[in-house]
Structure formats: structure tokens, C-alpha cells
Amino acid sequence: MRGVVAAVAVSLTLVAPATAEPPPTGDHVPLTVNPLACPSIPPSHDPNVIRIVYQVGLDRNVSPKVMLAAFEAGWVESRMNNLPCGDKDSLGVFQQRPSQGWGTPEQIMDVAYASTQFFVQAQRNEPLYPNYTAGLLAQSVQRSCCPERYDQAEGRARSMMAEAAGMISPRAFTGSSTDFDGDGRDDIVTFTHGPLDDVYVALSSGSGFTGTTVKWHDRFALSGETPLTGDFNGDGRDDIVTFTHGSLADVYVALSTGSSFGPGGKWHDFFSLNGEVPAVGDVNGDGRDDIITFTRDNLADVYVALSTGTSFGASQKWHDFFGIAGEYPGVADVNGDGRDDIVVFTRGNLGDVYVALSTGSGFGASAKWHDWFSVGGELPRIGDFNGDGKADIATFTTNAAADVYVALSNGSAFVGTEQKWNDFFALAGEFPYTGDFNGDGRDDVVTFTHNSLADVYTALSTGTGFGGGAKWHDFFGLAGETSF
């Protein structure tokens, strides 16, 4: 199946026109224009579809315009339903056509895959046409017969976006260890979600990631769940965890054997509700990673459930005001005392970074550790980039410049604003992460292109900068998957 994905994805050549003129009209007919192309079309949207589309957009860090374009397109094309019929050979929520290179019918009917394909093209087109409305941007992707329909759907699209935002838990992937075989080098993992829910791993050799179809689990982290990694039983090998959110809010763990992940077991039955952001870290310093959740509501509470090695204990409030809505939280040992602390990036126009240190039984008072870092929509990450035992912060601009900046921890603050550690790494739409991939004690950076090529690039830390990006894998982490 994964080989088929490669063959089809490479043929996708939906490149935006070079001029700034309005996007051309095509021969594609949306279902709301010709409803007879399907036996029946639901009168309203599918809540599960809008949740997945919104989650994929968040994961790809799309702009508000691109997100709006997706919801306008989804409403016009299918009323935001995953339909097995349409004009000509069109299928799915965005009515994508296998004959036009969008993927196989099975892929297009996977909402996460279809959403990713829309977002990839929309993110390519957005900087080419900065004056386009969201509707024109949607038309530049869809090439329909009726370009005016997308902007006309703005009100409905915004309503669905608001509904979707209340249904999901925003993901804040700032960094966690991924050494699954315990050899001292971080590896990479991808969660397919969708109908298969497989988990693949490629181990680090110190100079590349090996393996393409090495399946370590065949049913873990369903669509809409939040997967993370950490060493939950303290055996030196990182495991996987998934948070279901929803009404159940269960937490499942699959332990690493060094060559696969064992059966998933429920380690907590009520943790990290809808709208909360889960994280992983060893907050009490006992060598086992625990779970943390940030409520990110008007209370901004932070709860912790400590690992016993076989389960997570009762949820306890460790902070009563940290990480409000819209901020980007993370967990790491920033003062080098062996206990992971909590960090939050305000981003936006302020660019502040706050820290609350762990006491082993709670998080202390919040303190500002940096006053201008990871601004706007940049992607913040955390890692020990100079190998001194204290976690530092990095930010990826993920724009045309693709710069990477780092501020090092001195144990009581993050120092430096304009310390550029790489001047071309992690382009728009890519997913950057951190880890010690060559085992030298310094965290490096990795980026997953998550496009038709599915390349993985790594830039190793020298202690004062990141070296040039090098391809460490040529097919890993497909569109719609979650990869670390």
C-alpha cells in the first residue's frame, strides 16, 4: 500500500500559475452545483469530517486564510461530507479526482489524506497570490466551473471552523525523546491514523534513518487522537502514548521491546479532555516519563499524572494558571536539575516565553525567561542543543527564509534573540522536530516534508549552530500522518 502511495503522489503536478491573475475556471463541477452527481447529499456537514480537516490544518500550521479556504471548498464541494461519488470521478470531502493525480480512490476517501493534499497545494499558492481572498485561493486549488461559490460560503465556513475548534485538542509538539531501541540515538516514528492506524519506525544509524516499511504497531492512535512518545516504564527505551480526548478521555500506552511496540494498554481512564493540550515529561525526576495536560481555558490549569511504570496515577493539579488559550506549551528540563519543567510560548505580537520550574510535586511560580522569541506563527521547539544538560528553545520561521533561531538556557533564562543557527531549514508546510540523532549528547533538528516525496532532512548540532540539512530518509511520514 505504501509503495502505491509513492507512485501516485509523485504524479501530482497541480502547480499554481505564475501570474497574479484570478485563477482559471475549470471543468470540475461541485456537488452543490450539480447535486444529481450523487444519489444523495446530506443537508449539513459531518462533525467528524470538519474535526479532521481542522486538525490537519493545525498540524500543518496553515494560515487563517488557508484554513478558511479549505472550509469554503469543503462546503461547496460536498457540504463537508466524505462522499463516495461526485462529478466525473470526483470523490471525498474535496471532490478530488484520481485521474488528475490526487491519489488513489482509497487515499482520497481518507479525510486526513485528502485534507493534507488540499493544504499542501493551498500553502504553495498562498505566497504566489497574496491578494487572493480565501475563496480565490480555494479556486486556485479546485479549478471548478464556479469560482464565485467559494467566497459566497464564507459565513458557513467560519461557523464550521468555530464548531471544529471546540471539538478538538490543539497539538503542541515541542519535542520529546524518540530512542525506541535504547541505543542512545533518537529515531523517527510516524502514525498513519486513518483506516489502518499503523505505526512505523525508522531507526537512526547515526548518519541516516534506516527502514521504510518497518511496522512497529498495527493499531494505535486513531484519527483525532494525539500521539506522543516517552519512556514510561524507565527501561531506557522510548514508548508511545495516545490521548483519545472526547467523552472518554482515555490514555493508552504501548511499550517498546526494542524492535516493536507491544499491545496497547489503558494507563489512564480520564485525562486530557477536548480542547486540552497533552504533553509528556519526567516531572518528578524518577526516570519515568509522566503525562501533563494544559486546559488552556479561562482557568489555565495544568494537571499531571505520574507514571508508576505500569500505569499513570491519579490526576493532580500542579499549576493553577499557566498556558492560556492560543499559547503554545511544552515540557523540558530547562534548569538541569533532572526534573522536567513547563514552558509556554505566547507567540503572536508579544513573543514572550514563560517557565514554571518543577519542585517534584508541583510547578512553581511562572516567570518570564524571554521577551521576544517565536513570534507570529513561527513553530517553537525545545531541546538541549549545546549539550550542557539544560534544555534550550528553538524557533522555525517556516517561511521563504526558512530560518532557525535558538536561545540557550543559562538555568534561569533563555539568552539571545538573533542567534540564527540555520538559514534554510524546514520550509512552509513541513514539520520540524528535535532529537539527538547521532548520539553525541546535543539535540539536532529534523524536518518531515510530508509532501509527495516524503523526505526527511536532518541538521546536526555543533553546539553553536546546526550544520547543513542532509537527507536522512527518502520516504517516511506521508501526507496526513503524524511524524516525530
From TrEMBL:
Residues 1-20 form the signal peptide. Pfam families: FG-GAP_3 (PF13517). Gene3D superfamilies: 2.40.128.340, Integrin alpha, N-terminal. Keywords: Signal. The keyword GTP-binding does not apply. PANTHER family: SENSOR KINASE-RELATED. This is VCBS repeat protein. The lineage of its organism: Bacteria, Bacillati, Actinomycetota, Actinomycetes, Pseudonocardiales.
